[in-house]
What does this fold into?
Amino acid sequence: DTLFYSQIIQNNIHGLLIEKNNFSDMVKAIDKILSNHSLTHKLSKNAQKKAEWFDWTQVCKRLFNEINHV
It folds into this structure.
C-alpha cells in the first residue's frame, strides 16, 4: 500500500508517509503536524497543487498536448 501512495505523495512534501499498521509512527506523524504549523501549511499547499494536477480538465489538456506533439 505504501508503495502506491509514495508514487503520488512525496514524504514531507505533500504529506507524511508511514508504514501500514505502524501506530507508533502514526502518532508521531500526527504530533508533528499538530505541533508544526509551517509544516502543516506547506503540506496543505503542496497537496492542493498536486490534487489540481489530477483535475479532469488538466488531465485532458495534457492528453491533447501529447496527442498534438505526436
